Amino acid sequence: MVSWAGSRFGRARKAGFAVAAVAATLSACASVHGVLVPVAGTVPGASLVEMLVATTRERAGDPGEMFSGARGANVKFAEITVSIPPASVREVGEVQWPKSLPGNPATDFVTERTEVVDRAEAVTWFRQKLAKNKRRQVLVFIHGFNNRFEDAVYRFAQIVHDSDANVVPILFTWPSRGSVLAYGYDRESTNYSRDALEAVLRGIASQPSVGEISVLAHSMGNWLTLETLRQMAIRSGRVDPKIRNVLLAAPDVDIDIARQQIGGLGPNRPSFTLFVSQDDRALAVSRRVWGSTARLGAIDPEQEPYRTEIDMAKINVLDLTKLKSGDPLNHAKFAQSPQVVQLIGQRLAEQSTITDSRVGLADRIVQVTAGAAAVVGTAAGLVVSAPVAIIDPVSREKIGERVDQFNRPVTDTAVP
Description:
Layout: E1 2-3, H1 8-23, E2 47-59, E3 67-84, E4 110-117, H2 119-131, E5 137-142, H3 149-163, E6 168-173, H4 183-192, H5 194-205, E7 212-218, H6 221-236, E8 243-249, H7 255-263, E9 271-276, H8 281-290, H9 306-313, E10 316-319, H10 338-349, E11 365-367, H11 373-380, H12 393-407, E12 414-415
Helix pairs in contact: 1-8, 1-12, 3-10, 5-6, 10-11
């Protein structure tokens, strides 16, 4: 006989209820399924964001979904154009989901064009867009846990638009169930997608006209990113030199494993920028689920041994703990700072690194507050609008069944 509360299973039970309780507090608007069916046309004042999508998801039977949360056998590609409503009707940093279908391009994010393409067609699209990009810059975005395909598409479109970054946007989206209760499935899906992401990054870097690649990852997407870069370094002796900037937003990665992953990239690794917040409730739950000492995205960079390690590894850190937001989980604070997402776009346009002395980053660790956002926002960058967790209707029903159990104390009831 073992004690439920004192066993690993007891901790897992508590953690599972904690996930349900925290998730139940989310007030974000859920995505609307079917939004990827193209509308008849856009309106004056709306903006169009064109992106190339590479995915390890399986094709969906519904054209409004395009790709499901199931794992596909091969990497698939799509070209998507998103219409963003005029600035006069929207807040920077937000995705205006349609309340009903079809969406209204005058007030909502809507899909203007979608086309599933093969690899050759994807390469052609990429070369054409890159030829029009004077900076020859590419931005690859890897979303986090609990993202449906449309979540990733619309959020990335918002990031590209609001940052006004002059980049060729590439979305890499991996198989996520889009359910807060599918944490294990999503985590294993990131491992499933490592080879595919490496192939995509190598393919981008192999194009002679590409000058620089930046990678932006959020939450669980950081695990996929770090694992992929590490295996690239193992395979080739280093990360491809065109991958120059890696932005890690609220990384859901064990701190001890992160040390090995980043250290394994060798001395000629990309420039890393880490965004942390000690009040990130989603990472606090993840820590309980895994039983780990700390998650990388929730460390206090001013405390040892982190401060010394950060300095030795030459990692730039923005601590967003003091930055207040309307996000109940504090896992996507970036979406509440529109000035930051705009400033990072300016810095990318100038091809300046975030450690440039002109932006006042003499120290590698910068505390970000609402009052200081305009000063250090150039370093906070594109992660300002990283995806937030969206609870689907199925998860809501299951969560409702568990919240009452979570509120009751877990006793030492014996379990065979």
